[in-house]
Amino acid sequence: AGQSAKPLLPKSRKPRGLVLGDSLKEEVPSLARRIRKHLSDRVDFQGSDLARRWKPITSNPDLVVVLGGDGAVLAASHRLGSRRVPVLGVNFGSVGFLAGVSPERATQVLDQILEGKGRCEDRAMMRAKVERGGEVLLDTHILNEAVISRASRGRLISAGLVVDRRPVCTFRGDGVIISTATGSTAYNLAAGGPILSPSLDAWVVTPIAPHMLSARPIVLPGHRSALIHIEEAGMFTADGHQEFQLNADDRIRVEASKRRFRLLVDADEGFYARLRGKL
Can you tell me the distance from the alpha carbon of 140 to that of 257, in angstroms, rounded to the nearest whole number? Predict the structure, then answer.
């Protein structure tokens, strides 16, 4: 992880750009128009998609600008699939760890990127599979976190954690969060888990409202594989959007993904400055 050494944008032609966003946020459409006008002579824009959705992107952009909050950036990470396209998140939400650029600095940061002075961070992702009776029912790549939670009004959930085929512990409570380093500042933080630098190749397993005093978050190296076996029905959620109903005895297998997410950030403001501002 860390700052990418690869060229951010093609040099032999105008880069292709795509603007994504949430049109329900009042100022998003006007900023989308302003960005396209500001960069019209330097970027070949393929359009603007300001609808809330997770539909896969079929075009082939070199640069994606996301106007919204962290949730909009997470949606973009899924919509891009395996494409290693640099993404700039402009924050119209309440948190802004992924969408870390303010609307006021959006055009200035884009100018830096087009001048070759931009900063791009390669963020590690994880791959999660839901298995039932030996069959894989869901296979997804995750930027922030996978959440295993009890069913609505259901019993407490028991989740047994196995790392590299070695039993570690069993969490009993409202559920478990498996978070990447990038996602450590999201649900994991709200549940009392530790904050990790996004440059770390690691993830965190954090219990949700555990009904046992000994239950504590566990930090694992990113190259380890983990298996979580649940004893009761529950719900699996990926990055706050993708949901899947779990049955008792389902298994969730988590491992490092070969995909990386290329996040463009403000070169004048690093992770710790953003962290200090948010906390």
Answer: 9
The H-or-E segment that residue 110 falls in is helix 106-114
Q: How many helices (H) and strands (E) does the chain have?
A: 5, 17
Q: What's the one-letter identity of residue 267?
A: A
Residue 265 has pLDDT above 60, yes or no: yes
DSSP secondary structure code for residue 104 in this structure? G
pLDDT above 90 (res 233): yes
Beta bridge partners of 88: 65, 264
* Residues 171-183: tens digit of each pLDDT: 999 999 999 999 9
Residue 262's alpha-carbon distances to 63, 85, 211, 249, in angstroms, are 10, 6, 38, 36
pLDDT at 274: 74
What pLDDT, in 10s, does the model give residues 144-154?
Answer: 999 999 987 77
Question: Which residue intervals of 118-270 are DSSP H helices?
Answer: 187-190
Return the SS3 of 4: coil
CA angle 49, 51, 54 (to 5 degrees): 95
In terms of DSSP bridges, do strands 16-21 and 63-68 run parallel, antiparallel, or are they unpaired?
Answer: parallel
Do residues 110 and 65 lie in contact, with contact meaning Cβ atoms separated by under 8 Å?
yes
CA dihedral (214, 212, 196, 124) in degrees, to 10, reads: 120
C-alpha closest to that of 220 among 162, 138, 147, 175? 162
- The single-letter code of the amino acid at 160 is G
100 or 107: whose pLDDT is higher? 107
Question: pTM value?
Answer: 0.90
Q: How far apart are CA 207 and CA 174, in angstroms?
A: 8
Report the SS3 class of residue 248. coil
Catalytic residue numbers, as ranges: 70
Angle subtended at Cα 60 by Cα 57 and Cα 65, rounded to the nearest 5 degrees: 70
What is the DSSP-derived secondary structure letter of residue 79? H
